[in-house]
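@channel sequence for tomorrow's demo:
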Amino acid sequence: MDVIRRAVRAALLSLAAVLLAVVLPTAASAARSAPARPGILHLQTVPPLRGVVVKVDGKLARSDAKGRIQVAVRNFIDLDKRLIVPETRISDDRKVVFDRFRGDVDAGARGKVVELGLRTARLVSWSFIDRFGAVVPPDRVAAMRLRSNTGEVLDLAGAELTRPRWVAESRTQQGPRGLVSKQLYYVVDSAMVDGTSVVNRAGQRFVPWERTAWVVQLLFFRVSFTAADMFFTHRVGDGIELTRADGAVQRLPFGPDGSAVVPDLPRGTYTVTVFGGGVSFGRPVSISKDQQVALTVISVADLALVTTAILVVAVGLVLLGRPGSARRPEPGR
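structure tokens (generated this afternoon):
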């Protein structure tokens, strides 16, 4: 029996050796020849988007709603050199450009799905409102600076503030489980009106992936100016001269109630001077809220009072200093 068992075992081992000698080279040969054979390349866009175009070997394919692409290739050798992902506008307000592949594209020969990373851009526009939601005309804003979370800075001025603009929307990063799409956002660093910024730096944030119409709130305040003389506190003056941060001067007359009201004065620091009614020196005024500003003027009455006081003092000094006004001591006493 032992002899029979040893014979059977030897026969099985020989058969296994023959099978390995035949199968392994065949499998290895098939594995080596797979990249050289025609096949179907499976791609997955990151992020998953419809309408992404790829071109290879004279063929064109587009991604479906889930970002999947299937395209026939003549072989998988140096496929990364033949595969083209052109910039494509996949909707009215979005376009995509190639960013990266995850791993080797030739791996598609083994039926593996290859990740195709994309950068996206979005067509955005903006409008301006005040603190109460009233529309501010774009031509009131001289310039605006936007800054993305990647550090990109967009400086806009003039006509650029009135028309849509393409901005970077997302990009891909390598994650532990594959490519990951990262959405970008932008903050408003400044919005210049009359030479001063009327936004809090980085206080407003916009995400292109979520919204294409950006509404920027500007800081305008209602300010009332009045003027009175120094000593009698009577209303004086014909109006004020308001010198802005950009050097421009605006003359505002006082109304019947003795005040000049600016309903939408941009936040900032101004120099204010009263004209008419006396002597007024420029006074710096910082505007950061709705407020009433009371200015002081040296009026004609103030000047008369000061002049009279000076004359009285002068006459008194003269009288006190007259000869004989004080008894002189007699000689010898």
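heads up for whoever presents: The chain has a mean pLDDT of 87.
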